[in-house]
Amino acid sequence: MDTIENTSLNIPVLALRGLTIFPGCVLSFDVERDISIHALERAMERDQYIFLVAQREPGTDRPEEKDLYAVGTLSVIRQILRVGDSTVRVIMEGKSRARLRRLWQTEPYLQGNVEPLREGRTRISEFQLEALLRQTYSNFAEYASLAPRLGDEISAMASEDRDPGHLADFITQNIMLRYQDKQAILEELRPLIRLRKVNELLARETEVLSFEHELEGQIRREMVEVQRDHIIREQIRLLQQELGEDDDSELTEYRMKIDGLKLTDEVRGKLLKEVDRLAKQPYSSAEASVIRNYLDVCLEMPWGVETRERASVAAARKILDRDHFGLEKVKERILEFIAVRQMNPEAKGQIICLVGPPGVGKTSIAISVASALNRKLARLSLGGVRDEADIRGHRKTYIGAMPGRIVNAISQSGSMNPLLLLDEIDKMGSDYRGDPAAAMLEVLDGEQNCAFRDHFLEIPLDLSKVLFITTANTTSTIPRPLLDRMEVIELTSYTDEEKLEIARRYLLPKQMKEHGVKKSALRVSDEAIRAVITGYTRESGVRSLERMMGKLCRKTAMRLVSGEAKRCNVAPENLEDYLGVRRYQPPALDKDPVGVVNGLAWTEAGGELLEVEVNVMEGTGKLELTGNLGDVMKESAHAAVSCIRSRAGQLGVDPEFYKNRDIHIHFPEGAVPKDGPSAGVAITTAVTSALTGRRVRSDVAMTGEVTLRGRVLAIGGLKEKTMAAKRNGIKTVLVPKENLRDLAEIDPVVRESLHFVAAETVDTVLAEALCPPDPQRAEAAGQPIITAFVPMEQVQDAPLRQ
Would you call 396 a catalytic residue per the annotation? Predict the structure, then answer.
């Protein structure tokens, strides 16, 4: 051994994962890797000496020199025992510390050049050494008292060890430490410094063990308390059974609540069954908590509670007229419903869908209906709802389960016959969690909702007495089966006169009250309100108008507070001092352009004026379509060009224009998507104007689908489109002949201010929209002068009239 300690050795190397062995200590462990088993076999063939060194990362399967610590232990193999096909159990005894100088072989086993290390020396007096040893004995004894797996023989052996270096190695080998901490002790060659580090580790580990024991004691005490509580409750339950008492106060309270409610036999039996299940559950069990939550939710429902409905048409009319101006069709339908309720109080609840642009009063009219009927109101916002469980609820077995929004709304309203306002029903979505629109089919079906079953409640809930009012901006996104269950009432855009009355009666007084402005301090003339409507807002509803009224009040408050004025009079002349520069200029209708036509479009926000621009250039017959157009609108443009080609002779257009002219059709505001067939007549008129050089009347707007044969087909959204025409100063509107029946539904003010021309073919459209020909412009364009358009069926082979 002396020879070995003074010589550099070339011996097998065994890489340890998460283990460290110290000199003078014996360690038993299992070996599985092939390179480690081959190293053991090579060492046994020689002198049984092997170098044990720890890996830096235990997860490395094929370690190299950089993956190993430099300092390890020169050890001797005492015993090898094969315990499996690929596992060997080995007992090692550490001899001395050694340093790995170079790992020069990695296959089939590790082998390196190892240099034994000598112990360092530190000068210390006997008294200091004795004090250090006593401190170590004390710390180790305290640690041993907290570590149950540490045997008494280890404590006895440590207390008899007087060698500070060996004592440090022995303690470190036998206590639970991270392999990084053990490696740090192994690399320390000075015995006294090594023992001091061991004392620091013992102090740290003792604190950790003390905290662990404290936590274990706390958990044990809590478990004892829970067990004791359970035992006491079981004893109480058994004593109550002996005394003839069935349940404790909680179960009795549940039964009393159930008996006091107006429930059907099915619901009562279900709830009592849940109470019986609760009686069999331990008080603190998870199942008991689920049952209690279920019973609490069910008992909070207003079973049998209904508000007394005000079935008076006169009173309801007074409330509706007080809260809203206009909306006559909606008010008429609500009053019809009230009249039916007055005649038959047992009639089922109705399902009404209010469809219209934003800001026209859909939500507020529903609130007024609830007040007129004396019903409780609950509002549900369905915009963005994608989970079917939001409507039907979750199964009560899930953690955090809750009922759906319908049940919650009824519970919050405190009545079984409330008015449920389902806002933005057209904006529901669907994803992998289900389709909420499909769940609404049962809710909004008058023949099925008398026994609606929520997934959480699992009991039938009668919704037949609930009045459902839904709101939407469009019906195009509502599924057809769901739309079929609702009575649709359309709310049109407000006219300027209606906006004036609404601003004067409702919006301005409301904003003055919110801003603390007295009636005597602010006066806004009707002309100023009209100027605000036409110059600062362009909308179907009145939300922007209300914001402008609020801005007027803020400016007034600022002037009053700063002392600039004691009273503010707002007139058209000084309106810009309050609201800034006019946002929308009045339409310029005094010029009749060539190739520009006013079309009419429908959007979710109401009607809009949609210009069509056409430019004709020398070319090869290309047709360019721009303006962010959809497929349907592109097809309409192609159909319009084909229609013009078929009528080229009648229209005075060069029959070869599709070969020697490039046509560019553009719709301004390219960032806004556009689609639909109703711009067909506008495209036809614009292309004809550009090809013939004839001007288009700027005070004319048109809408209608055009066919290849020149027929004008019916369109939708006529009310909103005519409203947009009036808002933009249009005088004449060309509509399909099939839409004449829809004129009766247009607002009387709009109908009186516009001149409507019914068109069955594009001939009528062109005759009405195009200005008389300009001879100079026609000659410059090389086109014949056309004074009138003759229907195709009358043309045949007759020459054109010039």
Answer: no
